[in-house]
Amino acid sequence: MDYFLGIDGGGTKTKVIIIDDNDNILFENVSGPSSIDTVDASTTYKNINKAIEPYISKHPNLIFKGIFIGLGGIVFDEDCQSVESLVSKLESVNNETFIMARNDMHNALYSADNFDEGMTLICGTGMVAFGKNGKESHKAGGWGYLEGELGSAYHLGREAIRHCIRAYDNRLEMNDFAKDTASAIGLEKATDIIKVTNLYHDQRTKTAQLAPLVTKHANLNNVYAKEICDKAIDEIALAIKAVYKTLEFKQIHLVIVGSLGHAKGYFSDSLHKAIQSISEDIKFMDPILDPALAAAKAAKYFSEVSK
After folding, report:
1. What is the CA radius of gyration of the chain?
2. What is the pLDDT of residue 8?
3. Can you tell me whether residue 159 is helix, strand or coil?
4. In this structure, what DSSP letter does residue 166 have?
5. Mind listing the pLDDT tens digit for each residue in 111-156?
6. pLDDT tens digit string along 171-225?
7. Which phi and psi angles does 140 have, rounded to 5°?
8. What is the rounded CA–CA span in Å between residue 14 and residue 9?
């Protein structure tokens, strides 16, 4: 029996799934963060090891035939090599174990249960469009919040704060959207603005958590909230178009993952229309596999094709 390990690691948690060569799920578990732009290498290793340890302790002679690691923060080839070297130190690994590390957007793409072709849009705290067409791949967006993360929940959150501040210093008329945002961020008067902006500066996750306020008020027909959504959707469409055109796709499926990408009402409806305006050959598809299971199946697939 052969065993394959899939790892899906982000800034808040790491999920692992172990399968056998018949795709049966033997074990799954969750531990702490492992994204390499969130924690250091020792923490990444510790949390991966912690996640698989309960199974390994009961199967001390197990050696994985293949491991696929999809982690947040992986950008360069050196990052892949560094993570692969780290994982090679696990007890259930030997010189014959196939190990591949990539950014976690690969897990999202493979959640469609296709490892050679397709597109994915990750639209949550961050935003990135990614696709593969055979050996070619392309990424648009997803360069980190310092670049702006345009089209993401972080983007919506930042714009909500900006709108709120403009209403509270009378550049705009006060409205329910501004009031709701002010309540969420603790802004009571214009002089609180500096304190609040300092609090949210560099707080990526905290800022992204304001996005539901934007989509809520867009659904209530607030013109400012709809304008923020429209700008974000324009950026998402640019990213998808870049992937679609670069890889010269014809008919292709697009898997959308992330809470913002599935925000019901104005945002989701407008997003679908914007994508369809790029090409009617882009077909929407819900994820079939959990990202960690997708990683485990990728471990099996790539270990076999690499022979």
Report:
1. 21
2. 96
3. helix
4. H
5. 999 999 999 999 988 899 999 999 999 999 988 777 878 999 999 9
6. 999 999 999 999 999 998 888 989 998 889 888 889 999 999 999 999 999 999 9
7. -135, 130
8. 4
Q: Which of 37, 39, 60 is nearest to 48 (CA)?
A: 39
What DSSP string runs through 51-95?
A: HHHHHHHH-TT---SEEEEEETT--SHHHHHHHHHHHTTSTT--T
Quick check: pTM over 0.70?
yes
Alpha carbons 115 and 107: distance in angstroms, whole number: 10
Q: Give the position of tokens 């989509």.
A: 215
| CATH code matching the domain that covers 3-111+289-305, chosen among 1.10.600.10, 1.10.10.10, 3.30.420.40, 3.40.50.2300 | 3.30.420.40
Parts of the chain belonging to CATH 3.30.420.40 = 3-111+289-305, 153-285
Write the pLDDT tens digit of every residue in 255-278.
999 899 999 999 999 999 999 999
CATH topology of domain 153-285: Nucleotidyltransferase; domain 5 (3.30.420)
Instruction: Please state, in angstroms and rounded to a whole number, the distance separating the CA atoms of residues 269 and 155.
Output: 19
Retrieve residue 304's tokens.
């076999």
